[in-house]
Amino acid sequence: MQRILFVDDEPSVLQGLERALRPMREKWEMHFVDAGVAALDACTRHDFDVVVSDMRMPGMDGAQLLSEIKRLYPDTIRLILSGHSDSQMILQTLGATHQFLTKPCDPSTLQTAVERASALKNLLADIGAVIANDIGMTTNILKLVNSAFFGLTQPISSIERAVSFLGMGTITALVLGEGVFSEFDSQQMAADFDTRALWQHSMRAAALAKSIATHEKLDRMTIDDAFLAGVIHDIGKLVLATEMPAEYGEVIRRVGNQAAYSDAVERELMGATHAEAGRSGQT
User: Fold this and answer.
1) Residue 262 and residue 157 in one domain
2) 72 pLDDT above the threshold of 60
């Protein structure tokens, strides 16, 4: 049985939901509260599978509530049910909400939304189980999700929960990036080239790019693209270190830790920068 929390500051709306959803009592254990603070308090006493919140509420609004629930309980399904359908209000929920539903919402539509979101959650859990068999990928995902960029109050140790929190777009970018990095033979690279350090730098850049895109309330596809761009933004370094190992070894020797000045040295010794090499490798 699924445990679902409904949040709305209007008692009449909560009463209407309770009446309309009465036939679902055999499938759903339903709780109803009238404020965001009350919802967070309820979450400390019960493990909810789904939270359905109104958008505009005094004090903590729906977007703020679901953002906090995502941070504290990342594997909880989060839906917005609101009479306010303007684009600015919808943009506020991006990143924190799995689906936006407009009032009035009939019970069958709400039931379908909950069931679809639950099915996606189960799919992500299955994907997490597959990824768990790859120790390297599991380590990278857990490091990423527990990094400071996501601001979790408690670390995530389960790969299934990490996959659910990050979402399919981010996981796809991680798998793609790992695959690209693995295509390059480290034995053919410049002697002092550190592939592991480059991967860690790329993960930090990707997490920061995703954080900025989310803060700017960009759409989900753009947020995922920003993360992928961070993963592969220095891929040209792999190309140069593999194709021209002696020259790139000299680049490393000259530049040392002053990576900001590497472009000029790369162009001098190799005729192209790593950014240009990365672009040519993607065309």
Assistant:
1) yes
2) yes
Query: pLDDT of 136-165, one tens digit each?
Result: 777 777 877 777 766 667 788 777 777 777
The amino acid at 35: A
pTM over 0.85: no
Q: Which helix (H) or strand (E) holds 32?
A: strand 28-33
CATH of the domain at 6: 3.40.50.2300
Identify any residues that bridge with 82 across adjacent strands, giving them in sequence order. 102
CATH number of the domain bearing residue 155: 1.10.3210.10
Residue 253 CB contacts under 8 Å (≥ 6 apart), including other chains: 192
Helix (H, G, I), strand (E, B) or coil at 42: helix
pLDDT digits (tens, 9 = 90+) for 263-283: 888 888 888 888 887 765 444
Number of C-alpha atoms within 13 angstroms, CB side, residue 246?
A: 0
Q: In sequence order, which residues have a C-beta less than 8 Å from that of residue 4 and are 6 or more positions away? A: 28, 29, 30, 31, 48, 49, 50, 51, 52, 114
